[in-house]
Amino acid sequence: MVYAKMLDGRTPVFSQFGTDIYASDVVQQAVSCIVHEILKLRPAHVRQTNGVDSSVIEGNIQNVLDGPNPLMTSADFLEKITWILFLNYNCFILPTWEGNTLTGLYPLNPINVDFLEDAAGRLFINFKFRNGYESGAVRADDVIHIRKNYSVNDYMGGNASGQPDNAALLKTLELNSTLLQGVGKALKSSFAVNGIVKYNTVMDDGVTEKNIKLMEERLMQSDSGLLPLDMKAEYIPLDRNIEIVDPETLKFVDEKILRYFGVPLCILTGDYTKEQYEAFYQKTLEPLVIKLSQAFTKGIFTNRAALGFGNKIVFFAEELVFMTMSQKLDFAHLMGDRGAVYDNELRVMFGMKPLKELEGVRKMSLNYIDAGIVNQYQLSRLNQYQEDKPLEEEDEVNKDES
Fold first, then answer.
1. How many CB atoms lie within 10 A of CB 2?
2. For residue range 4-61, what is the model confidence (pLDDT) as tens digits?
3. pTM for this structure?
4. Is the N or the C terminus of the chain less surrounded, counting Cβ atoms within 10 Å?
5. Do the beta carbons of residue 149 and residue 165 sit within 8 Å?
6. How far apart are the first and last CA of the chain?
C-alpha cells in the first residue's frame, strides 16, 4: 500500500493529540456539560419506510447499541467517545463482527493514525497505540469516524495537521490564568503583616519574644477588634492597596471560554429556562447528535443496507427535552389524542410508574381520520347526503300539505 492522497499534497500521517486546554477548570466544566447531555441519548436501529422512521428494529445491532462491549454501558460508551472527540477532535470506533453479526463497539485512542490506499484506490487506516501495538490496515469503511471542526484537512477534524486548533482559546486561557494568579497573590497579601508594634525601650530577645506572644494572645482574645497598648508600645499600621479583580471581568473571561464550546453560563450553573435550554440544544447538542447518527450509520451498514433498505442508527433525544408541566399536558393531549403514545409512556412522562395492565394500551380520539382515506370518507358522506335529501324534501312537502 501507499499513503493516501490529500488534496493539499500533504502526507496523511497524523499524531494524536493535544490536551493543554484541559488544565483549565472552566474548559473541563464546559465539556462536562455537553458530555452529560450526550450520554442521555438513546441509540436505536431503525428502518425508514417511505422516508419515515419506523419503530426500533430489535436484533443484535440494537443489543450492541444497548451494551456496546463488556466494559461499558451505553451511557459509559457515549461519555467516553464524546470526551475523546473533544480532546482530539477525532474519535475512532471499531465495530467487531462474527460473520454478519455485530458483536461490539470499541472506542479507540491511538497516538498515531496513517491513511493508506491500495492499488484499487480503497482507503485504509493504520492505528498505532501507546504500548507500541499497530492495528495494521483496517478498511476505513469498517471504522466509525466522528470529526469535530472538519474543515481544512481531507481526512481529520481540527487544523491542517489533524490536530485540535486551540490557538485562539489558549490566549483566553492564558488571560484567565493570569487573573486567577493575581487573585491568589492578593489573598496572600491580605494575610501578611498588617502593622508594626514599636516598643519605646530597649529589650533583649527573650523579652521581645515574650511581648510578641502576649500581643498575639491579646489579639486572639479581642472580640471587639480593639487592642489595648500601654505607653511603652506604639502601633504603626502598614498601608497596602490590594487590588482584587472585579467580578465582572472574571465573568467576562469565563463566558468567553464558555462561548468557545457553545455552553451558556446558565447551563453551567443549572439555572436555565426552557428557552435557554432549547437554544443550547439547537446550537451545541443537535449538530453533534446528527454527526453521531450519520457516522454510526455509515460505519455499521453498507451503502446497500443503508440507502437501499433504509437502515440507520438514530440517537433519540427524548431525555434531553425540557418541558414544563403545562407543556407536558399539551403534549399528552396532542399526541395522546392521535394515538401516537402508549398510556404507560404518558405515565412515565409525569413521573409515575408504568402499570402492568396498561402494557400495549394505546388510545386515540375519534375526531381524527386517516389522511389516506379522507377523500373516500368525504365522498361516502356526500353520497349519503344526496340519498337522504329527496326524502327530506318529500317530508317537507307532506308537512306543508298537512
1. 8
2. 766 656 656 555 444 466 667 778 888 899 999 999 998 989 887 766 556 678 889 9
3. 0.69
4. C
5. yes
6. 103
**97-128 burial by CB neighbour count: b if 16+ within 10 A, else e?**
eeeeebebbebbbbeebbbbbeeeeebbbbbb
The Cα–Cα gap between 251 and 270 comes to 16
The radius of gyration of the chain's CA atoms, rounded to the nearest angstrom, is 35
Render 90-144 in DSSP notation, one character per residue: EEEEEEEEETTEEEEEEEE--SEEEEEE-TT--EEEEEE-TTS-EEEEEEGGGSE
Which residue, 220, 293, 358, is CA-closest to 38?
Answer: 293
How is residue 302 annotated by DSSP? -
DSSP states of 17-33: ---GGGGSHHHHHHHHH
Of 27, 6, 7, which is closest to residue 18 (Cα–Cα)? Answer: 27
Distance CA 275, CA 323 (A): 10
Contact present, 91 and 84 (Cβ < 8 Å): yes
| CA-based nearest residue to 87, from 27, 37, 143 | 27
d(CA 340, CA 227): 77
**Alpha-carbon distance 82 to 399, whole Å?**
80
Q: Rounded to an integer, what distance in angstroms lies between the CA atom of residue 91 and that of residue 82? A: 8
Q: CA 254, CA 237: separation in Å to the nearest integer?
A: 37
